[in-house]
Design brief:
Elements (H helix, E strand, L loop, with lengths): L4 E7 L7 H14 L5 E4 L6 H5 L4 E3 L5 H11 L7 E4 L5 H10 L2 H7 L2 E8 L4 H13 L5 E6 L9 H6 L6 E4 L4 H6 L7 H6 L7 H33 L1
């Protein structure tokens, strides 16, 4: 059985929800396994995701027709390379409007490409409404709810809030201590290399904290990947 090419769409209609962090972590997850990966940053003004991976990502302006062509034509190529799209909150409505207008989901499925929505939650009713709208529009597209406790903490009512979302698949990204979190802003810090060859000048305390933070996240990614492969195999029988 040939594996479908995965296209991860990391998104939220709101800022500061951890979308770029997820795109970064997922990219480093694949790189840590020596797997080629391709990324797209839809924020043409402050492309943070692209800054972390300048050689593996492209900046796309979805307000421009040439940007749309460059993005969606590339996402439809079934080459086995996982694609990751960081959807800037100001590009959110336009991105999904274009997805609908061009029939992207249907075309992707026909070409052996599997879109997966990574929807980042927060405590607002509008975020929940957006997630429900996406789920209703594309019932066959897997949706993973991403809870980033460092960017958009849900507090004491997290379980209740998450229970209203239209998906039981979830990624939890824990919060980091402020001093450790600042290390993530260093542009030359590679999380995939950190696991095998940490910078010699890095504090051993920072190193241990980052490894402890990354490990369960990568485990979730791997578990999802294995479950998705199993579900796909059962579907094709």
């Amino acid at each position: 059985m040939s594996r479908r090419t995965l296209v991860f769409v990391a998104c939220s209609p709101h800022p500061r929800s951890g979308v770029s962090t997820t795109a970064r972590l997922l990219t480093d997850f694949y790189l840590s396994r020596l797997t080629e990966v391709e990324g797209f940053d839809t924020d043409p003004h402050a492309p943070r995701y692209h800054e972390w991976f300048p050689d593996r990502t492209r900046v796309i302006d979805t307000a421009d027709i040439r940007g749309q062509i460059s993005l969606f034509d590339r996402l439809l190529i079934d080459d086995g390379t996982p694609k990751i799209v960081d959807v800037w909150q100001r590009a959110y409505d336009r991105f999904f409007k274009t997805v609908k207008e061009i029939g992207f989901v249907e075309e992707a499925r026909a070409r052996g490409v599997e879109p997966i929505v990574l929807f980042h939650v927060d405590h607002t009713d509008s975020a929940l409404a957006s997630a429900k709208s996406l789920s209703a529009a594309w019932r066959d597209v897997p949706m993973v709810i991403v809870q980033n406790e460092g960017a958009a903490p849900l507090g004491a009512y997290a379980h209740e809030t998450l229970g209203h979302y239209p998906s039981t698949r979830r990624f939890l990204i824990g919060a980091l201590d402020g001093a450790v979190a600042k290390t993530l802003d260093e542009p030359d810090l590679s999380l995939s290399r950190l696991l095998v060859s940490p910078p010699p000048e890095m504090s051993i305390v920072i190193r241990a904290a980052l490894k402890a933070w990354i490990a369960p996240i990568f485990t979730q990614f791997r578990s999802f990947e294995l479950r998705h492969e199993l579900d796909g195999a059962q579907f094709l029988k």
